[in-house]
Amino acid sequence: MTPSPRSRRWDYDLLRVGSMVGVVYLHCAAAALRSASGAVWHFANLASSLATAAVPLFFMLSGALLLSQEGTADLSALFGRRLPKVLLPLAAWSALVVLLTLLRAGPAAALEQLSALPNTPAMVPYWFLYALIPVYLLSPFLKKMADGLTDAHWNYLVLLWLVLTIGVNTVRDFLPLESAWRTVFTVHWTLNVNLIGGYLGYFLLGARLARLRRLPSRRVLWLVSLACVLIIAGGTWWLRRSTGAYDESFKSYLHVFTALLSGAVFLLARSYGEARRSGRLLTFCSGLSFGIYLAHPLAISFWESLWPGWMGSTFAGMGAHLLFFAAVLLSCFAGVLLAASLPGVCFLLTGQSFRTACRECNLPSLIKTRGPN
């Protein structure tokens, strides 16, 4: 049963909404980071350095939630409820993208895109769901495993990932291209614990950090977060000056800076809000976040087709850059809110039942009269 708004955790909902906004900004800023200069580029670089934690935080939230729920081990719950909430919206939005390709580029291009869907997402940002679905499929076994782990085993499991995935990837990507040591730090297909591209580690990291009984001090967490953002932004700026091109090495999801930033932000949210319950506004935004994630690539494509005729470049100035981001985010919000208000498409486009949406995050939920608490 879906929890009521009063039973929702403030920290998890805040992270979900913040991560959704971060992902939308990352893709809105892509053109500016590759082509802009001056104040717009520096702002986009700094903001995207913070937003780099968004995708890892989505994986971590899934791990923290799924591995703490008894129903996760139930196969009927996996195939009857949890997996359809991801698979069906992904299929629906992918079908919409293929349909638009058919209308714009013809049957041959649409057929090519359709035939590639089992291995290639219809739009690049959907890769996250291609990684999340295998994690969901493994979640019943991971739940059984997690229930039997001691703190020492949890620490060992996370350490394996930090060393053999995060550590190895970080060292390899910062070695000179001509260095013979790059081969040593390249994961071999036989010596490989890099499960699901390494993203399973964030799922397990979220579950581990959710179980911590004693959190680091907020001062330490703020310092780690700030230091990581500055290192990521400063390193990206340095690489651009050195090579003349935008390089995302410091922003890789599988590098140590992003892993530390994501862990620190997750614990900061726990520190400030673990005992708090989400209010109506945060619950409302959280309920729409998955739909907005699915809608935003199409929204960006739509606004990019119109923007040059109205405002010129999407990064012609700071105002244009921020206005473009606001237009994408608000149009997604409005569109998903409308979709969540229509019984026939609510589940397909948002991943939640119409009944849940009516309680938390659609137009009926805004206008209904609440009874006494």
Describe what this molecule looks like in 3D:
The protein is mostly helical and 373 residues long. It has one domain. 72% of the residues lie in helices and 0% in strands. It has 17 helices and no strands. Helix 5 (75-105) runs antiparallel to helix 6 (107-116). It is globular, with a radius of gyration of 21 Å. The two termini are 20 Å apart.
SSE pattern, N- to C-terminal: HHHHHHHHHHHHHHHHH
Helical residue percent?
A: over 70%
Shape designation: globular
**Number of helices, where a helix is a run of at least 4 consecutive DSSP H or I residues:** 17
Count of distinct structural domains: 1
Percent of residues in β-strands: under 5%
Q: Spans of 5+ residues with little confidence (pLDDT < 50)?
A: 1-6
Count of strand segments: 0
What does the radius of gyration come to?
Answer: 21 Å
Structural class: mainly alpha
What would the average pLDDT be, to the nearest integer?
A: 90
The major sheet is characterized as: none
The end-to-end distance, rounded to whole angstroms, is 20 Å
